[in-house]
Design brief:
The protein has two domains: 22-152, 3-Layer(aba) Sandwich (Rossmann fold), CATH 3.40.50.2300; 184-347, 2-Layer Sandwich (Beta-Lactamase), CATH 3.30.450.40. Helices cover 49% and strands 17% of the residues. The protein contains eleven helices and eleven strands. A six-stranded antiparallel β-sheet has the order 8-7-6-11-10-9. A five-stranded parallel β-sheet has the order 2-1-3-4-5, with helices on both faces. The longest helix has 54 residues, at 130-183. The relative contact order is 0.07. Mean pLDDT is 80; it is low at 1-24 and 272-277.
């Protein structure tokens, strides 16, 4: 042991750690009175290539922390209107991600335990020198850097998780809609079920499905939900007229976040005498096109949360629109086939009677 002690080289300032290579955005705040402690903190942070802001009172430090985020907060006072323990608790509540260090001299063991329990990251032992202070600050700065990186990763993970959750909900909705289409033969019932599912998925209270009437070329409201929905059933819109007519004419899905700021539809949304003729400023309108044939339109509005519709909402509705358009197109083709058969029977009644007689 004695031989080992003889060979140990004493630590000199040249051996102290240099500046910590971390993001320059790191902010340090020290709560201390003028004097030796302030000088030590200033020298240590300068040696680490850092600037430090000073506060003389706990109240002032809390105010500064409310205006700017400080990654590292150094507590070098025992009390000033509140105890150090109370201050650490308050700063942790105000800024959970801040790294709090305790560096006041002459602290009792009980005080150190209290502040550590409240969330302090590290403390400076009594009688510690500048090297230990610098080491503690270096660890805290590195810890703050890692904490910021961890927070960024957590936010990215949360965003990814939310995206996956949303995609799962979309797949469930798409599956249910397709299942309804394959199991229900009545077009109005299919559209009604589909509208109900979409409104539930988006938390909306208003929506409608238009179907193109081949004889007149008008869009006719077949199903609707929301205030005045019953009065809307059967309403007609000509292609190119009004909001629905323009969306159908252009055959492009439309997302409107605030119709008052949208030059395309602002005038169409006004009622009599220029009064506001709509309930919700944000809506989605999607034309229903199958094999380049316009067969109808879908409109969804009035989120219960009051939020605007988003591009993700538009994307999902555009995906659903393809399946709904296929169902409507099949129904229209069946109707056309039925009308053609009736016209043929009317033109050749003898052939119809002959076919009836030949049936077993």
């Amino acid at each position: 042991m004695e031989e080992r002690q003889k060979t140990m080289k004493p630590i000199t300032p040249a051996d102290w750690p240099g500046a910590v290579g971390v993001d320059k955005a790191v902010r340090l705040l020290a709560v201390c009175a003028p004097g030796k402690v302030e000088d030590r903190v200033r020298h240590a942070t300068k040696a680490l290539g850092r600037d430090v802001h000073f506060s003389r009172t706990f109240d002032d430090a809390l105010r500064m922390a409310s205006e700017h985020f400080y990654e590292v907060v150094i507590v070098a006072k025992t009390d000033n209107g509140m105890s150090a323990c109370e201050f650490v608790s308050a700063i942790r509540r105000a800024s959970h991600d801040s790294v709090v260090l305790v560096a006041f001299p002459g602290a009792r063991y009980e005080q150190v335990v209290e502040v550590m329990v409240e969330g302090a990251y590290d403390f400076l032992p009594e009688g510690a020198g500048e090297l230990q202070l610098r080491l503690m600050l270096g660890r805290a700065i590195e810890h703050a850097r890692l904490r910021r990186k961890s927070s960024r990763l957590e936010r990215a993970l949360d965003a990814r998780t939310e995206s996956l959750r949303q995609r799962l909900q979309e797949l469930v909705l798409l599956h249910d809609v397709i299942e309804d289409m394959s199991s229900v033969s009545d077009l109005d019932e299919v559209l009604g079920r589909t509208l109900d599912r979409i409104l539930e998925a988006f938390g909306s209270t208003c929506g409608s499905f238009f179907v193109l009437e081949p004889e007149t070329g008008d869009l006719v409201v077949r199903v609707a939900a929301g205030t005045g929905a019953e009065q809307c059933l059967g309403n007609r819109h000509r292609i190119g007229e009004g909001i629905s007519g323009k969306v159908a004419r252009d055959r492009h899905p439309v997302l409107v976040t605030n119709i008052e700021d949208d030059s395309r539809f602002r005038e169409d949304a006004q009622g009599e005498n220029g009064a506001r003729g709509y309930r919700s400023p944000s809506f989605v309108a999607v034309p229903l096109v199958c094999h380049e044939r316009l067969v109808g339109e879908m409109n969804i509005a009035e989120k219960g949360s009051g939020e605007n519709f988003t591009p993700d909402d538009l994307r999902l509705l555009a995906t659903l629109a393809g399946h709904v358009a296929g169902t409507i197109n099949s129904a229209l083709l069946a109707q056309e086939l039925h009308r053609a058969q009736e016209q043929l029977n009317a033109a050749h009644p003898d052939k119809q009677d002959s076919d009836t007689e030949n049936q077993p």
